[in-house]
Records
---
Amino acid sequence: MTSPCRILLVGLQDADGEAAQQLFRAAGHEVLAADGIVEAEELTQASPADVVYLRASRTSAGLGELRKIRMTLGDPPVVLINEERSADLALQAWHEGAADLIFLPLKAASLDASLARALRKLVGDGEEKESRAQAQLRYLDATGKELWRAIIPPRFTLGRSTDHDIVCPQMSVSRSHAEIILEGGAFFLQDLGSKHGTLVNGQIIDRRRLADGDHIQLGGATGQALTFHQGDLLQSLLGISEINSQAGVSVRDFREMGMLLQTLRTLSSISILDDLLSLVVDTAIKLTGAERGFIMLKEGDGDLSFRCPRNKFKQPLDGTSFQTSRRVPNEVFETGRRKAITDLDLSDQGDHSSTRQLGVRSIVCVPLRYWTLREVDVSSSTGKIDIIGVLYVDSPRRADRLTETQINAMETLATEAAMAIYNARLYKESQEKRILEEELSIAREIQQALLPAPNRQLPYVCAYSRNLPCREVGGDYFDYFELEDGRLGFAVGDVAGKGVSAALLTSVLQGIFSAQALLDLPPSQLIANVNRNLVRRGPGNRFVTLFFGVVNPEGVCFYSNAGHNPPLIVTPDGAMRELTEGGMVLGLFPEAEYEAGTVQLQPGDHLVLFTDGVLEARNRCGEEFGEGRLHALLKTQATSPAPAIMERILEAVESFSADTAQHDDITLMVLGYREAGPGSRH
């Protein structure tokens, strides 16, 4: 954790200033606030500030104020705060000696990270070795936002508890999971006896020295993923061992670094794939001084497809007239190694005559790599690098001025772009999935609204039903019809298949059946009419099973069964009878004929109707619930009221198939004829 220090805020007197004061004071720091440089000098006469946060005035970039603060207050580390996000401003701020540059509106993460970077300048000469051992962790928070966190020696902790330097909310991460310590100028990752382990580059570890680019996973594949970066942020991104006055890095290279940093900041905030690709290609062209560029992405069949061809003026190129050789992109994609050819005429990397005929003289192509993690078991995972495509730029001129720094920058851009592309694809898929889920949720509401109220009470009979689709919408159907002379019609149907297609045919069935029921025809004739209409209107490759019955106050039940699971009459003594008279399934043959059956119900009898989702419910071993279990349960519930019978069946099916996904739509209907007992209306 960061030791308490004295922080001076200059020019931050608004809501951003209040938020910064609250954050720093909550962390145990002393905070002073000044309107301007004169007041800042007065406040620090007795005791100087350790770190200064300077907000630029609205009429300047703050560079002049930055110089004056450093001269007046004894050159403390100064964090410049600005409204404008500019790579040129970042470069100028670094030249003026700013410890860091952050932008409005202020966020807790940016304030924490900037303070950590500023405090590095307070390290004494005797600790020079450790001061150079700068390191950061890069990770995504719970919302998917990319964060960078500086590792402050000597001990940096990670875990689920809120008192750690990085708090990981995932349940597979232990409360105190791991720590990073600095020893002899090297960083070591130490597991703290976590339950699900700590992995580095896919290998579970107890203690491991960290190297730049190491992938850390806390708590398995469902836990927190982080990437370790050693050295200054620019060094980490561009692979430069030292950046100081003796490094020999040109101002041009610094400008490219600032451009790269600005792009990397922007990448994490873009979720639209096409916009993301445009930014990446434009930046690659500008970094290398090329004339044009494009991205090739691996599609589902494994082949590469051209995406986003653009020129140096940030304009899209017509894909029909865009010509290039696929040789270099394919080679980079297959080998995973970058390729930079400054002059194809002088290249010793094979014959490129066909590419030269297209007017191309120089090429830079780098792979788009993405690190993926796959969980092996609870305590271990394996990782691998997937190449999802290539980033390519070319020019009709020789690239004599192309430097290693530019190529490194483009490769770094490609690596970060690969992650952003992967996340953008996930975002697109999640958005499409969300829209589909919303539409299906509406469809489910509509489908359920089209069904009748699940319970129906008449003076002599009660009916209780339940419809449980295995997906958002389903292919099961039930209905009631109150007919003349106090009779009750009832139906249960099952369309072959599941999901949306079955639900659509169910709606067709419901419309046809409701229209036919109004005619008050005998069950066998009504079923035949429904069948003929389904054959005419249905898709021809789907069938429907259906049971329709009519019961009158005297207990006489007329019915017809079109290939449906035979309903069961259950008497109070536990005896059972199946209702099978009828005919074949509906929707296949227009001239199919159907018979009618008749049964006399006695007081206390129950009629149990169900779809095959009840019998075919499966447990973890793949066994089906089956008729035997249903019959045994009904024997024990023979004297129970209809709602209790229905609930016992549903409970038994749910218990039997616990911890397994529902295999099929379930519809259940229980009718009780002149039930007797406490609370009965009959």
Note: The longest strand covers residues 362-377.
---
Amino acid sequence: MLVTCDRRMSTEGPVYQIAIVDDEGQVTTVPMLRDEFTIGRKEGNVIRLTERNVSRNHARIVRENGRFFLTDQGSYNGTRLNGRRIRGKMPLSPGDEVGIGDYTLRIEVLEGATAGAVPVAAVEPAKPAQITVVVEGKPNTVYILSDVPHVIGRGDECTIRIEEPGVARVHARMHLVQGRWFIEDAGSGGGLLVGGQRVRSKVLDPGDVIEMGRVQLYYTLGALKPEDLRPRSAAARGASRLPMVFGMVGALIAVVGVVYLLFLSGGKERSGGAAAPVASVSFDAGSPGGAAGAGEVGGVVAHGPDTVVGAVPEAAAEAVSVASAGPSAEELLARARAAAAQAATVDAWNAVIEMLAAKELAADAAAAELRASATRERDARRALDEAKQAMRVGDPATASKRLAAVPPDVRCAAEAAPMWNDVIVAGREAARAERVEDLETIVEALRQIVAPPPRVARGREELEAALRRLSPPGAPPAGADAGAAGRDVVGPGVEVRVRADAGAAPRDAGGAAAPPADDSFDRARQMVLAGNNQGCIDVLSRAPQSSRNIELLVTCYKAAGRMPDVYNAMLSYVTRYPTARKADEYRAVLRAAGRLP
């Protein structure tokens, strides 16, 4: 059953219609001339679907910038678009089928659209969101984004897998929230850039470029056009050169160390194993430009066993102290472990991940393991916080889903375990409330079904009035007990008075019992008062055709809407009893119906 409420309509935009098909195949069409359609079982919705598997406020269709979008309003059974359950806002196109309970809503082009309406062809079909991987300016792979979360990285568990040196094993994650895609850094060493800016998380807009090392990911609706390709940002180019710089510095340190060891071993051999130092860093203040003098190798001066090593100048000592002021990788890792031991909130875990993103820990295996563990703990804590928030707003279904995302081996699992009982109890209460409301809806529907239609109600009133006119004053109803007195309510608004001597057999003047009289009229009247109109017709059809029997039969036929039988009964009446009290009235009716000349 469908009811469309009267609301203000807008004629702007393309002309579509919604074809609503119920479980019996009946089709009802609604022109999409409004800017908003609310769909549900509750009164007040633009489209009201009254089946039990439709929620009170089930779904919503809105027009934005000439396009229609479908959103689920937190319904219990969900909303399906072309067979798939939706999350967030989904665009609609001609030919789409929306499933709500037992109903199917088809989006169709409205036939006979006016010339002033915007042509349907002006609205492009919905284009899927997609990620195009571009390496060194060349498109590589295209990923169509479904409505499930995605993981970007080099690992086997990633749904968007990129085998490039600058991409971490788990580099970033993407989530669909309210119809929009969000991307967040998963604790990668190289970081995440969107639009040339380093970000931790960001909502994506069509055309955004995500950069990871020398890889670009283009987020678009539909295929990426060649003219949309852009050069890598300066920040991404600088970040991609950092590993090369680190490698060169490391190689230089290794060469200096090898040379130092070679000269150290040579000095020991010449001095007969003396432990005195034989090499040192020399700073020749007198040489032009600080150039290395004779006997220097890459800034390291070799000294013989008798050479006096001078003191390091103050400027060099200060430079050495400044170079050694930063914490080492071991110190950074120790700090991150200490912070992880105390972390108990999402922000605290984000701080740990930020510490582990230091460049000194980029190649540290222990840091990578701790970073993965911290990311897992953070995601579990976030799911637990969302479950608590859902319970506070009375949404046990969402709370159950978020609690299921908390693994049993994380730190906050002990805090999540006691919540399951509250979630289960709240879910049962919500289901019980839903059932109670459904029962109330069923009761109301039954009341409407049981309530007689206006024509039957009017016929019943006419029948009761006719019975009162035909019944002799004080006549008892058939079958009344002899000792009964007072009155009895037989039906709504109908009272039958019962005499104290009701049911006694009639007697003649001499006191002898008279022959039994025909009681068909009384039995027929009792059936009418009990609501059994057909039973009354059956009794009177077999009874003697007295004037009052025919009058009651005419009234019953009227109440049942059987007009041909009404006319036949009236003809029988005026033929048998041409001077009876109803004869003139029946003849007038028959003449008006063309049954009498």
Note: Confidence is low (pLDDT under 50) at residues 1-13, 114-124, 268-324, 477-516.
---
Amino acid sequence: MNDTSTTILFVGHFNDHSIGKPFQQQTELFRLFNMYNFHQVIQSPTRCANILDWFVINNLHLEVLPPLRNLDISLIFLELDLKFCTDFLSSIKCWDYSRADFKKLNEILLIAPWEDIIAASPTPDVALNNITDIINQRASTCIPFRILESKKSTSVDAKAWINLNLKKMIHKRRRLFAKWRRTQCRHHRLAYNRLRNKIQRYIKDRKNRYIQFVLSKLDSLSTSRPNFWKTVKDLLGKRSYSNAPLICGDTVQYDMTSKANIFNEYFTSISTALDSILSKMLNRFHMCTDLFIPPLSIEPLDVYHVLLSLNPNKSKGFDNLPNRLLKNCAQSLATPFSLLFNFILATSHFPTAWNIASVITLHKSGSLHDVKNYRPISILPSLSKVFEKLIHKHLYSYFETNNLLCNRNSGFRKYHSTTSNILEVTHKLLVAKDSGCSSRVVFLDISKAFDKVIHSALLFKLQKPKFLPLQIIHLFILHYDSATKH
């Protein structure tokens, strides 16, 4: 809308009586037209004393011609240079894993001089780039490429029960309907009715089969939590993606670049707490243990197990190392990755490339035009997540072994879930009831909880106790400072 070279028009059959007084009505539509400087360019009557049709446009003039012969409708002459958008087509170059020779690739990667590459790299950034380039170059010799053509689907194509056979029948039904309208033949009408009824029965049958299939998936005990909610959303027809314009102040943004800048400014400006309140809270923090964690060293066997646990269907990040490649080459990549991770710990330098993420936005609730109603999802580099899992495994096992975690904390812990908290609360309520006591429960639901995480407080707690290795503390601080700048 901010591009003055773009021509936008509104047309419609309104039979307007207000000749020479365009947009005087106090309606939302007229206010929108006035806001963006749209004009009703037809000022002469096009039928009797009225303007039969509206032609509202932002940067074009047209001419109203006299009526032809005995008609009471005038002709409108204009020239438009329109660009019609077809379905969005894009080609993606990717590896064809079905024809990959991973056995040969592992053999090639095993003989690479990884130790010399790490030793010759002055910084972890250089080492990461060298390792990534070598993996991609040698993978290209063992994994052929293929071109994927993606087509933007319509709402009909998005339905799971729509198949190629049904699309052909729908297309044939449209042709029969057009033939009947053109010929008014009774036989064509009967053929159209028969095909229409057949399609309705076919859709009903396909839809019932799909619903039964979805219900069987939901009843399956092996269905994981992400797959469960994905199945539910597919069944309900809910889509997280939205290409709606964003309203920022008095302007409406349509183009992708402007919308991306608005999202970026909002997501990076979210405040978590006032500094004055935060300082008072942090000063009351006390140590809960005299223990300390010894310096961390990552072994190739630990890297190997983490690589095998990767989900091959996850998207790759900016490091251009897909999970499927890392998982299939875990045996040959465990050693070079362990050398790289130990180099990072020794220098306490988090690679700059790992601070870059591909961010997508998901609509939560409310208006689609308000940036506050979206939450970001970051697609991180795969190798950075492997490194973070190794750090988490080391710290978590130490906390669990020394009982440093609160027993009432069930979030993000193995063998714990919301069921643990429900059982504890239910037990206390039943004990109070048996004792003849009354119970009072206060439930807190924090809106946008992850936006309210106090990162500076987490860093403060990491530095306050001396049981964390300095290499990990410095790594976290440098990673946080670098990530916030991006």
Note: The radius of gyration is 32 Å.
---
Amino acid sequence: MATVYKIHPAIGIARVGNSPEEFFVGPERIGERPNPPGGFKDARCRVKRQAARFRIFAHHDDGTIEAITKAKADITWTVHLVSSKAPNNRGNTESAADLTIDPGPRTLTGPDQRQEFDTGVVKFIGASPTTVPLGEIRSDNDNHLLVLGGSGQSGSPRGDALSGYFWASKGWFDDISDGSVNATIKLKSDGSTPAVSGAWVIAAPPKFAPYLDNVITLYDRVVQAMVDGGLLPAPNQTSYTQDVYPILQRARDTEWVVTIPAGAMAWPDPVTSDALRNAIFTSLKAPGGGGQDMPQLNDSGTLDDRLTAVQYAHMKRWNDNRAEWTGWRWKPASEVRSCRASKQADSIRRGRSSHPAIMSNPSG
């Protein structure tokens, strides 16, 4: 089997912000927290954008992984950001093409370059076409890719009123976007041009509680979608460290943004007693409906305020004392950062959360 070249992460999360120049690279490993120099806002209190950084790794036959930089290959990056929220079926009479903000792909052919997604237009009946910038791409000195979203712009060219909330309001747009990330490489060692597996980027809203993780992460959603689509077998084994403890800790952390009775989730780790395991499990909302009231999340009307079926099954095995307890301790980001490249490449695929109503761009 030949060496396989892949872009990592498979799905990168950028975040919009209204600081025109200041930005920071978002978390890239499990447990890592953003820590932008000078804080999350610039000197004028404008929100810094979070960039998604993409890199290419060579996956060799012997299981080793090698980072590909400008020293090893000529790299050309192509990104296609699109905002396709406005065409969502909410009573619009315009065509999907008129409401899709699509500036087309942008390409970088070497280090220290920059291209903007600044030509996309949205067209509402009764209003002039509106140009909506979706952000930009940059390459750093090693020819890694940085994708930055827009400025957090939203509006209604006709002056339509909001109908309770954005998603239900026809006549409105914003600059949330997503799209394909692709690359071509020419290896300097032999001049060959092997194929590179592509990736995806999401330019989501700012994360105003940056040190909290959602109880249900984007990774959890993708795993569930793959299981539902027959692309991945449903897990039949559960690790307390990898599958249960993260859910418990993220649920516990919601007390910083949701009113929860004092002491309601003040259990010590690891949770081993039968009574406490059963109390926690029976408090959960069931994936298909019913159950009690945990986790404390908002419901968009699609029962997305409860654990995925895969997560719920992990909790059920844990409640039945069928989880693997060995080595339960959760590793902090500092330990993950010190691991070898193969583990880093895997870790940057996980632990991310985003926002509803994205990942809708069919391009790429």
Note: The longest strand covers residues 49-59.
